[in-house]
Design a protein that fits this description.
This protein is an alpha+beta fold. The chain is built from three helices and six strands. A two-stranded antiparallel sheet has the order 1-2. The longest helix is centred in the first third of the chain and has 16 residues.
Amino acid sequence: LAEHGGYEVKTIGDAFMVAFEKSLQAVQFGLAVQEQLVYAPWPAGLLKLEPCKRMADGPWCGLRVRVGVHCGEVEVQLNTLTGRYDYFGNTVNKAARMEGACVGGAVAV
């Protein structure tokens, strides 16, 4: 995340919200995550599970994540409890919808 200039905003359930200064950084991060997951040394037992098996039509194997990217203006607020910044607004909502609309192993822009 840091290599791409990203900032972890928060976790939401099993998801992470991250922010970048430039949209290209976000896309490069999403692609790097997907590539690293493809080549990760997954345990053999995990790869026997149907959702984690190598796909016949591509390189994907192991755990798959969805990445949604959207760019635009956001409302920034300091969370006084954590001391970290949080982001709100239509841009954040659209990024969440992008993530929800794609399949594991994809980066939706």
